[in-house]
Structure formats: structure tokens, C-alpha cells
Write a structure and sequence with these properties.
7-stranded parallel β-sheet; single chain; Rossmann fold; alpha/beta
Length: about 280
């Protein structure tokens, strides 16, 4: 039975993935700061672990606990992450650094902790949850997009480094997901731009995010969970899984259109999404 650790398991993609993998018979450890939010998962056989990915001691304790119980780790799913939207000029440097700390450096630290065990096993799978905004820009989400672009490059380099040890690295690149994250991002975007040069644009982008949420123009997290499970089940998984509402068409258009034409397309999509 494969042993799986998934971060950010208290909600959204992490919750649905932990649930699905437990139902499929994997031995799942769900890690998150809010352990109380994982009680439903515990009833399905998921072992909850309290984890703060920005705390080194917390990360060491999590891996020590898991290895102490299981003596191995077969899959790690780096799902914990967040994005606070805002114009690059408006987002405070501290907030920008925090996004990199959570979305990239915490991922790297956790991977460094599990790699010795996977190398010893001569097998393992590292699944990093990226975003379609790791391949195309996020309008007024430049810092978030930068963290995901960085995660993509990091993951590709890591794949080259660990392949000789029987370890694979997989990127999951979701499109818009229907979680409270969208509404929180919209609210933060408006607050960050209030009274500034980007206020009018930020208001339009925030309204677009809310409309997408209301009109079900976003994928259910369970859809993404199925692809994560597929990447684990497969002996020869893809290096990337681009999934969710609108993701594939937008990535294709980004590849074939001139850059400034694509820029106009993104702006027009925001402005044309009406109630």
C-alpha cells in the first residue's frame, strides 16, 4: 500500500484529493494548519497531521512522524499554497515574499526532507500543484503568477536531477477552481488598489472573478483530484497535467498568438464577462 503525504489537505483540491486517495486504498496523511477541518477525512481513514509549511520545525516533525510510523514515503503532493492578487506596484514587498515562501521555498524544503527516503527506496513520486498561471500571466496577479512560473522551472530541473534514482516529478496545472480562494482574491485585489492608479482595473478584475464563481465558470476541486490520482496510479505518468475550465484553450492561444495579441485577449475576456 502506497504511503501518501498531501499538504493543504483541509480544503479545496487537497481535501478532495485526500478523500479520493483514501477511498482508493492509499495510506494517506493529510497535512494542514487546521487539523479540525480534516475530521471528515479522518473518518475515511486519512491520518491528519498539523503542519505549517512556513515553519521548519513543523516540517521536520511531520516527516519524522510519518517515517516513524510507515518507514517509507511513496508520494508527496505539494498542494499548500496561496495567492493574493494585486498590481505589482500595489502589493507590499513583504506580501510578495510570503507568496514565494509558501508557493516555492516551502515546497523545496519539504522535498529536500523526503528525497533521502525516496532515494533509499529507489522510487517515489513528487507532485507539485502549479497553475495554468505558471504558463500564462495572471491579470493583476503578477506576484502569484511569478511563484507558479518559478515552481514550473524548479520542478523541471528537479525531474532531471532525481530521475536516475527512480523518482518522478509531476506538475498539475489547474485552470480556475471553484473555491473560496477566488472570492478572497477578489476582495484583497480591491483593497490593495483602493485609491490608487489601478483601482478601476482592479474593480473590473475582481468583479470578473466573482462572476466566474457565480456562473460556474470554474472547475470543481474533485475534477483536479481525479487527475492527481491518475498521475499516481499511472506507472508512466505525464510530466504535466493541464486540467480544468478554460485551461487548455488559453494555453494553446498563448502558444500560437503574438504576445501583445494574447495580452489584449486576456484584457477583453475580463471586460466582456458580464452579469
Amino acid at each position: 500500500m502506497k504511503v501518501v503525504l498531501i499538504t493543504g489537505a483541509s480544503s479545496g483540491i487537497g481535501f478532495e484529493t485526500a478523500k479520493l486517495l483514501a477511498q482508493k486504498g492509499y495510506r494517506v496523511y493529510g497535512a494542514a494548519r487546521r487539523v479540525e477541518a480534516m475530521k471528515a477525512l479522518e473518518q475515511l481513514g486519512v491520518t491528519p497531521i498539523k503542519l505549517d509549511v512556513t515553519d521548519n520545525d513543523s516540517m521536520h516533525n511531520t516527516i519524522d512522524t510519518l517515517i516513524g510510523k510507515e518507514k517509507r514515503i511513496d508520494v508527496i503532493i505539494n498542494n499548500a499554497g496561496y495567492g493574493s492578487f494585486g498590481a505589482i506596484e500595489d502589493v507590499e514587498e513583504e506580501e510578495a515574499r510570503r507568496q514565494f515562501d509558501v508557493n516555492l521555498f516551502a515546497v523545496a524544503k519539504l522535498i529536500k526532507l523526503v528525497l533521502p527516503y525516496m532515494r533509499q527506496q529507489r522510487c517515489g513520486k513528487i507532485i507539485n500543484i502549479s497553475s495554468m498561471n505558471g504558463r500564462i500571466p495572471a491579470y493583476l496577479g503578477g506576484w502569484y503568477s511569478a511563484t507558479k512560473y518559478a515552481l514550473e522551472g524548479f520542478s523541471d530541473s528537479l525531474r532531471l536531477e532525481v530521475s536516475d534514482f527512480g523518482i518522478d516529478v509531476v506538475l498539475i496545472e489547474p485552470g480556475p477552481i471553484k473555491t473560496e480562494w477566488s472570492l478572497i482574491s477578489a476582495n484583497y485585489l480591491e483593497r490593495s488598489a483602493r485609491g490608487g492608479a489601478y483601482e478601476a482595473t482592479a474593480t473590473r478584475v475582481a468583479e470578473s472573478l466573482r462572476r466566474q464563481y457565480e456562473k460556474n465558470m470554474m472547475s470543481d476541486p474533485a475534477v483536479i483530484a481525479k487527475y492527481i490520482a491518475k498521475s499516481i496510479d499511472s506507472k508512466k505518468s505525464k510530466s504535466r497535467y493541464l486540467v480544468g475550465f478554460g485551461a487548455k484553450p488559453l494555453i494553446l492561444l498563448h502558444a500560437i498568438l503574438p504576445t501583445k495579441t494574447f495580452d489584449l485577449l486576456i484584457k477583453n475576456l475580463v471586460n466582456s464577462t458580464k452579469r
